[in-house]
């Protein structure tokens, strides 16, 4: 079952609070610990608490610290976007959501209110957030001031947009619909939705559209003279006092808001008397206009009454006041007890909640976005802190990445090189490193140097290595760093920013060696595309593997995929799909596929298969109908290094995908190789991968 549900809307004043309140009422009846979360909130100039959060927390007595119920304010989102740092906003939202996920059984997530600078911006953000949190979604839209065609077109476009971004939509909810239009609207919406998507219509509820006296007071910036405890009263029609009392009384309806100048004592007292009289309807409150207060004897008389509705003084004249009240878009507040109960009752009456909860119970998120993947990497690395050695510490990129890693406290970094030169370089780069946490070791000065020399000699003397040669080799940072891993003084190594792949890997092959079940070392890249994370192998190590080696690469890559939270569906790539192709190269892929099937019968694998058939569902199902892999492959195995290396670089450059890796597979302990053109981000991510490998995945 999904641990969360996202409520999204298409415009302001959609009435999505009905959905939030109704769902929370039902969830709390079925689930022990439920949280409420808003990724983005609107804060006004006075930094008041978010009304939606306060309403849900207050009514349901939710035990959540306020600061944990939201991630960012609208201003923070806009600032991040304007500074080109929009990714950090998603990272913050994921982090805050995941923190709640660790503590609660279910999280109800409510999207933005469309009160900011553009509906397109907010719509995209709701799609992006739902996708990155991996949550099924309810789309809510209001029918107010829309034709049937306008409403249908808007919500159909929204539905298709969410689906195109791999967000599962559980229901379309048409809110504030005139009862006579419900049947036609539901028929129209069902014309483009599959049977598994609920189409729900909620009629307009007049009392929910009426502002409370509190909303009127806040909109008019009024001053409450009496009846502060009754500000939750719902307003009805307006009764404007511009006539004599005997005529005015005939215009009072149930819930009327009396609007009259403050010096009309006759209308004020007459309205209050009507309120307590069994012969006249109750009023909701009185608005005194023109900034005029009743005279002292009148105030004293009102103060002595036992039943007083809110009496509010405003500075505007009667005409402007009436106009402004008429334009108020009503909301639900924590104090709006009647509205809250009406909302829950309306939800229960019109929403098939059991159907929604059943859909939630069967929902399984299969989409891993790049941001989700990177968040999960950091969380995995944090579980057990490992010691990672970086032999090329004089490189500015290495030092910058080390500083970032130190701040996050994810790993213990060991830098190899001249301590004086490294510290000077760090200062020159403006980096602050705590050398009590980040160790700097000069190999020949290390207290275990001679022990390392002796160990290397014993390991390699059968290859005619003598002690002098062993000492020279231990002065090489790649060999020294690898020996630290061998001797359990470090847990993993990342190199290659300066040195060649061969120089990085050769020491590991000489004495770290491969796992018993592996005959070769291979590699994978985690390709973080816009809508998914795919595993590419082997794109860095083996030039032309034979069928058995290709099968081993596929099995190792599938295991790596699973270890990092990606369900392995393996595509063995070739220039043809299925049985149509002939030739030595395609026969090798076909043979490798059969080897994998025999060794791992439960692994989903297809091959040979072309790249487009592996990743595009329409193409895949047309070429290989019924395949569990075609069109939805997560692990793509290339037939040779030439194809793999060029393909990963083409995908990276042309799509802007983040390529994390290469991560080496098959060694007894993790050593990973960087490209000499690597960025600080590449180093940062590869160190995290290495730390996770060192945990024994």
Describe the 3D structure.
The chain is of the alpha/beta class and 697 residues long. It has 4 domains: 4-207 and 339-359, P-loop containing nucleotide triphosphate hydrolases (Rossmann fold), CATH 3.40.50; 213-329, HprK N-terminal domain-like (Udp-n-acetylmuramoylalanyl-d-glutamate--2,6- Diaminopimelate Ligase, Chain: A, domain 1, 3-Layer(aba) Sandwich), CATH 3.40.1390.20; 367-513 and 668-697, Rossmann fold, CATH 3.40.50; 514-666, Rossmann fold (3-Layer(aba) Sandwich), CATH 3.40.50. Helices cover 45% and strands 17% of the residues. The protein has 28 helices and 23 strands. The strands form 4 sheets. It has a 7-stranded parallel β-sheet with strand order 3-2-4-1-5-6-7, sandwiched between helices. A 6-stranded mixed β-sheet has the order 20-19-21-18-17-22, sandwiched between helices. β5, α6 (148-164) and β6 (169-177) form a beta-alpha-beta unit. α6 (148-164) packs parallel to α7 (182-190), α17 (396-408) packs across α28 (680-694) and α21 (477-486) packs parallel to α22. The two termini are 26 Å apart. The model has no long low-confidence stretch (mean pLDDT 88).
Descriptive terms for the model:
six-stranded mixed beta sheet, alpha/beta, Rossmann fold, 45% helix, Udp-n-acetylmuramoylalanyl-d-glutamate--2,6- Diaminopimelate Ligase, Chain: A, domain 1, 697 residues, 4 domains, seven-stranded parallel beta sheet, 17% strand, single chain
